[in-house]
Amino acid sequence: MKAILEFDLPEEECEHSYALAGADALIVIDELFNEIRSCLKYDSGELKGCDYDTLEKVRDLLFSLKQVRRLPDLI
Q1: Residue 14, in any domain of the structure
Q2: CA separation for the pair 34, 74 (Å, rounded)
Q3: How many domains is the chain built from?
């Protein structure tokens, strides 16, 4: 089975760009989850020193938004 996305350029340039950036956006979300986890579990990473309650709320919100949009987990 094949899936083909087709865009009328230049009219749909934004939509084309969004489609191309989809995998990168998932990687960014996954990296943010990992940073939050490192801080909450090991008190390390880029977010070290941030308020734990706020990080937990951000993590929960990200998880909820991912579920609502049915974004896949990275393999």
Answers
A1: no
A2: 12
A3: 1
The answer to whether position 74 is within a domain reads no
Q: Is residue 33 part of a domain?
A: yes
pTM above 0.70, yes or no: yes
Give CA–CA dist 48/68, Å, rounded: 29
User: Quick check: 55 and 36 in contact, CB under 8 A?
Assistant: yes
Kindly give, in sequence order, each residue whose CB lies less than 8 Å from that of residue 30, ignoring residues fewer than 6 positions away: 73, 74
Question: 3 in a domain, yes or no?
Answer: no
Q: What is the pLDDT of residues 31-73, one digit of tens each?
A: 999 999 999 999 999 999 999 999 999 999 999 999 999 999 9
> What pLDDT, in 10s, does the model give residues 4-27?
999 999 999 999 999 999 999 999
Q: Are 27 and 73 in contact (CB under 8 A)?
A: no
